[in-house]
Structure formats: C-alpha cells, structure tokens
Amino acid sequence: MNKGVNKEDTTPGLSDSEVAGLLAEEAAAYFPAGKAENIEKMSGGASRETWSFDWQGADGSSTGLILRRDPGNTGSTGEEGWRGGKTTYSLDRTTEAELQRTVYEAGGLVAKVHFALPENHTLGGCYVMDRIEGEVLAPRILRDEAYSGARLTMARQCGEILAGLHAVDPATLPKNLVQMPVQPLVAYYRELLDGISEFYRDNTKVGRPEYHPAFELTFRWLEQNMPKDAPSGLVHGDFRNGNFVVGPEGIRAVLDWELGHVGDGMEDLGWLCVRAWRFGQHDKPVGGFGQREDLFAGYEDAGGRKVDPKVVHFWEVLGTLKWGIICMFQAYKHLSGLIDSFEHMAIGRRACENEIDLLKLIEEA
Amino acid sequence: MPQDRASAEELLGGVEAFLRKDVLPQLSGASIYKCRVAANILSIVQRELALGNGADSTELQSLQKLLGREGEGFDTSSRLDDLNAELCTDIRSGKLDEQRDGVMNHVRSTLQDKLAIANPKYAGYRESLGE
To answer: Does B1 fall in a domain?
Structure first.
C-alpha cells in the first residue's frame, strides 16, 4: 500500500532538515563522542517516518541506525481515527520502543533500541534502533534468486520466532499493552465496518450505507466457530512478509511492533497465512514462501503449544475479514476528508477481493 | 437524449491509453505508482459502465428470489439497497442460517459480477469461476 501521500505538505510540521538537525543533537546527547552522518529519510507516511543514519564514533567505530518517528504537531493525519475516535489499538512510539526492548531482552529477533523520545518532544514520539541490513520488500524476497535458500527455511523459522515471542513473560511486557483476545478484536472490526457504513449513509452525497453480505456471513461464522479458552500472551499483531528483514540465510529481524497486544498467539500464525501476503505465490500459503506444516512444526519444536489447524484457520478467516475492512477504511480516509489520496479511494474497490476469498474459507471449514 | 459520440466508455479509454502510453514512460519515483493507479481506476469505471446495470438487475432478481419478494417488481437502486439491508440484517440475526447454501450461492454470484468490474484478474475471482 502506498503511504506516500498525505497532508504533510500543507500542515505545519518539521521540515526534513529540521528533523535531521534535531536527530543529530539527540544522538549526540545519547551516544559517546562522535557524530551522526548520512542522515537520510527512507520513507515518509502520513503517520510514520523512517530515517536512516550512521553514528561515527570518535574511536573510529560506525553504527548503522534507524529513527522511527511520528511526524508530531502536524494535525490529524487520518491514521489515528475515524470520527476523531481511535480506529486502531496501535501503540504510541514510546510503548512500541518499550515492547521492542522487552522482546530484545527475551532473546527475540528484533533490532536493539537505543533511546526513545516522548510524544511531546519537538521531534514527535520516536525512537532510535540498530539498522539491520537486508531486504524488506516482500515481492523481492519472494522472487529474487538471492533469497531462494531463505524461502525454503522461512516458514519453519517463522514458527520458531513466534514460539519464542509468544513465550515472553507477560509480567515483563509494557503495562499499557492492550488486551485484545478474540472477542474484543471481532467487536472492534464489527464497529469499524458499521461506523464506516453509517458515515457514508449520513455524511456523503451518495447517502447510503455500504452492504457487505460476505462480511456478515463471516461475522456469523466467527461467532459460531470462536476458539475457547485460548491461552493469553504477547501477540505481534502484524507478523508477515513486509515486516521482516531478510538475508540469503533467512529472517534477520522482525519489524513494526505497533500492533503488539496481549491475546491469542494463534492470531499471528493465521495472519501470516492470509492471501494478501502471498503476492501471487498461491501455492505457498505461509506468506508466499512456505507450507503450513512447516510453520506448525517449527512452532511446536521450538516449544510453542500444540497447533490446532482449525484454530489457525479461524484466525486466517478473521485476518482476511480484517484486511477487507481495512480496504474499506482506506477509501473512507479519503472520502471523509481525513487525507487527500485518490489511491486510497481506489483501495475501497478491493474489499470484494477479500469477500470472495472469505466465502471459500468459511465453506472449507 | 443520449450524448454524442464518443461515449463515456470511449472517452475514458482514450484517457487511459494516454496515461499508459504517453505519461507513464516519462515519470519517475512515486508518480509512476500513482499514474498506474489512475489508469487502473479508469479501466474499472469503463467496466462498470459496460457491466454495472446488468449486474445490478441480476443481483436484484436473485435477492428477490432469495428473500421471497418476487412479486414486488424491480425498478430502482434504492430497492437493491433495501433488500441488501434486509439480507445483511437477516444474516446477522441468524434468520437465514437454515438457508445458508442459497445465501452463499447468491452472495458468490453477486461478488463474481462485482469482481468482473473491480478486478477481473484477481486470483481468488478466477478460482471461484473454477479456473
């Protein structure tokens, strides 16, 4: 999804050179003698920016680093909510940094966080972490010859990584991590679907709600097939190709912890199997690179609980529904005036792709 | 009174070809992606102009049959809205649980018609057609 278009150009905020200057100052205050060099903006979105830089130590050492920041003081960007409410249970940068630290200390495959700055800082909520070299773009990981070896091992490796992640001691997790077991999560997407539809009925020229009978059939199916007594623990929340740094040998780091929450770990396994992440590699249901059997075996062999494929299927269904409603939400962001992006508008027409997939998924079970 | 030629579809087709053949090769960076999306949007609208009315009336007939409203005639898009609202409410309440197969068949064929407009290349759509 393109995140390049937003209102940054028209709302007050920091210019790129101001960000670079402040970053150099903050890095100098944190790291021992040296200076920040090669400061470069890698991607800018309405709600999140990634910067790359190197810390050149006076002793001759060099450390590759990443700044992840919210462009603060830029007014509403649309990511934070519909009707001004919260659309997402996503974490602020401070909590995300804290979570990433916890996982790092538990031995997880994640970049080391050096320092974080709070929301009210001039730079906006942000943190600095190690830059792990490798490929992030999913289509390249799935197609380039350089990653052919990685692709063979990644399904199993994902299982191993997730087993470790789900075993992180809950007592060590950030205190304000949201509890999102299955029922509130389903209710959350129910509310998002209804809220968008009502907005269209009441506030747009077309003046009618949007109807999605396949989503309704799916909600009904979810109600009737909800897993019971799921153990509760850390869930990454967006564990999929696109959030992995990959080298020829496999996954080097897991990125993007902002949807981290406490819930059923099987959510991560199911989400990884959603069709949207296969990028055309349909014979490889696990992220476009592997088979479910390998994912499950990796998970169990690394100490994860016994995987019930039916429960993972449930989460794949919920994940596909989520993705479909997120497609609606992308169009909503433009149509409600939160952002100005015709590309987002077009994504609304992709909700039905998920609907046709859902019919098959709820029929199979 | 109908408009003169070119038709709406023909006009859009002309602009789409201009974007793909003339504009796109001259672009760089993020504009390439945006230009592709713009051209894709024009092709969606062309398909909608060609297939949209037919799809709507097929959907309405199928809905009337499913909900036992065959006698009620079919004219407007607001009727389609009303019956879809009823369908969604009845699925949600469980009222249509016993008719699940019929509902699934209706929803599937409606979605197929929708995807024939929105994205006929989509793999899940081709699979649902048995390809």
So the answer is: no
> Is there a single domain that holds both residue A165 and residue A84?
no
At A90, list the tokens: 């996503």
Q: Note which residues in 62-121 of chain B have CB less than 8 A from chain A.
A: 78, 81, 84-85, 87-88, 91-92, 94, 97, 103-104, 106-108, 110-112, 114-115, 118-119
Quick: pLDDT tens for A46-67: 567 899 999 999 999 999 999 9
Is A257 in the same domain as A344? yes
Domain annotation covers residue A3? no
Helix residue ranges, H only, chain A: 16-30, 93-105, 138-143, 148-166, 182-203, 213-224, 266-272, 292-301, 309-335, 342-347, 351-364
Say if residue A100 is in the same domain as residue A144.
Answer: no
Return d(Cα A178, Cα A185) in angstroms, integer.
11
Give the model confidence (pLDDT) of A284-340 as tens digits.
999 999 999 999 999 999 999 999 999 999 999 999 999 999 999 999 989 988 888
d(CA B44, CA B119): 7
CATH of the domain at A209: 3.90.1200.10
